[in-house]
Amino acid sequence: MDFIRYAEASAGLLNAEIDGVDALVEHLAGRAWLHDQCSDRDCMLLRKFQRELRPVFEASGAGDVRGVIDGLNDLMVRYPITPRIADHDEHDLHLHVATKSASVAELLVGESLLGLATLICDLGPTRLGICSATPCTNVYVDTSPNQSRRYCSDRCSSRANVAAYRARQKLVSAGASGTPSTPTERAV
């Protein structure tokens, strides 16, 4: 089990709009073996989990260590995780969330929580966040060495950087033309 991949998948799950089975299947594009098992009940449970998990990302983004730890612990009580040693490759033993009787929703929730709990223990509780690009509200997992991630995607990062560049250029241009740059300066 790649815990970082599962933690990042939890952000993807939180950012996904799961408004029906087709949307859930689309979210699970790389996991075709789960498609036939997807149900309306899974969608309902995952939407509920999304509402319950978001405060953990918000707490992390705000530097609220206690909120992250308590939030994840509460979710792990509500959604018990059953890890199993996977031996499908006897030279690469690793952990998976048990799936024999688990629904698709239970599997995704278990992977999310186990991945996030491990990430928080390994890298710290402030490695989750909400995109800084306006108006984006997507979440992300920060695995950067210097904990510098601020955006959910390269697209949001590029848009924010272009907007900041244009704003700086506008200020420079307004200052160079002698045009007052603020309403107060214009009124004087």
Automatic annotation (TrEMBL):
This is CGNR zinc finger domain-containing protein. Residues 127-169 form the Zinc finger CGNR domain. Pfam families: zf-CGNR (PF11706). It comes from the Bacteria. It comes from Nocardioides luti. PANTHER family: BLL6575 PROTEIN. InterPro entries: ABATE, ABATE_dom_sf, Znf_CGNR.
